[in-house]
């Protein structure tokens, strides 16, 4: 069985395919592209046909200026087209942070294209209803994104990248302690930060929308993650009593990056529970 990586293009998005088996689509968050899933694909490739895509406007390639505005609506359309172009049938969809909202929206409105959905810490509070939880989210969002916005406004994208990564890793100096490869990947995507800060409104997704999803879904979050991520993930889990809710002890928002093997083990455990006779 070949474990070689193949470079593909599905619709407008480049992708990296590896492995054989049931199809798995891996979608990155902010300051990343398909390369962030390299270790995960290596772990999964013996049993799963994995495809990691680079969302529109991310990565190192040139994108035309006349494309749709940056935001989840455009990225959702591209993901739907990518699944259709891949031609593998319904996929297990895995999404982290920024892209997780689009994954949940797809579970509600494009379910026939999916086998299951696993999201780690979705980032948009469109279904966060409890007033105290929303207040905690808003206070932490100001702490996290205020310095990032200031750095973007003054045009210092390296400082903005450092600010976002330190905040996501919940530790001053987190960015600098990462591997050189990871820092380079994030700086390669620093050009997206002005777009992220001025993106189109998030896709409309309510608690009622989540409650009627019938696909197998896992909402995962770190046990030590900050409120801007934890409150949204917890709200999604409350709205979806039918879904699995995974809380990873001592983990923060960066757990998928810090522990790729453990992340893949969580994925496979979820897929086995959703399809005991085979995914």
List the helices and strands and how they pair.
Elements: E1 6-10, E2 13-18, E3 22-27, H1 38-44, E4 48-53, H2 72-86, E5 91-96, H3 100-109, E6 114-120, H4 131-153, H5 157-169, H6 174-177, H7 180-188, H8 193-197, H9 207-211, E7 217-222, H10 227-239, E8 244-248, H11 255-258, H12 260-274
Parallel strand pairs: 3-4, 3-5, 5-6, 6-7, 7-8
Antiparallel strand pairs: 1-2, 2-4
Helix pairs in contact: 1-12, 2-3, 4-5, 4-10
List key phrases describing it.
single chain, 279 residues, alpha/beta, 8 strands, 44% helix, globular
Major sheet attributes: 8 strands, mixed
The helix count comes to: 12
- Identify the overall geometry: globular
β-sheet strand percentage: 15-25%
| Share of residues in helices | 40-55%
Q: Distance between termini?
A: 19 Å
Coarse structural class: alpha/beta
What gyration radius follows from the Cα positions, in whole Å? Answer: 18 Å
* Unreliable stretches covering 5 or more consecutive residues: none
Mean pLDDT across residues: 96
């Amino acid at each position: 069985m070949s474990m070689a990586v193949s470079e593909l293009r599905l619709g407008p998005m480049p992708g990296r395919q590896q492995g054989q088996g049931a199809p798995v689509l891996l979608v990155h968050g902010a300051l990343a592209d398909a390369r962030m899933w390299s270790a995960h694909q290596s772990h999964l490739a013996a049993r799963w046909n994995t495809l990691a895509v680079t969302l529109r406007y991310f990565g190192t390639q040139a994108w035309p200026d006349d494309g749709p505005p940056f935001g989840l609506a455009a990225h959702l359309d591209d993901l739907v087209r990518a699944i259709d172009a891949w031609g593998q049938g319904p996929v297990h969809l895995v999404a982290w942070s920024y892209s997780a909202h689009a994954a949940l929206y797809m579970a509600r409105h494009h379910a026939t294209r999916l086998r299951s959905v696993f999201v780690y810490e979705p980032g948009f509070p469109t279904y966060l209803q409890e007033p105290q939880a929303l207040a905690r989210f808003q206070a932490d969002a100001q702490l996290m994104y205020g310095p990032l916005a200031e750095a973007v406004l003054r045009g210092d994208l390296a400082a903005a990248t450092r600010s976002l990564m330190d905040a996501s890793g919940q530790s001053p100096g987190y960015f600098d302690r990462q591997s050189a490869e990871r820092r380079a990947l994030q700086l390669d995507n620093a050009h997206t930060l002005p777009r992220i800060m001025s993106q189109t409104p998030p896709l409309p997704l309510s608690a009622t929308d989540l409650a009627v999803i019938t696909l197998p879904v896992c909402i995962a979050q770190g046990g030590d993650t900050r409120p801007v991520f934890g409150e949204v993930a917890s709200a999604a889990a409350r709205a979806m009593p039918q879904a699995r809710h995974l809380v990873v002890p001592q983990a923060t928002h960066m757990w998928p990056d810090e522990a790729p093997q453990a992340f893949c083990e969580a994925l496979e455990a979820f897929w086995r529970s959703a399809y005991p006779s085979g995914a």
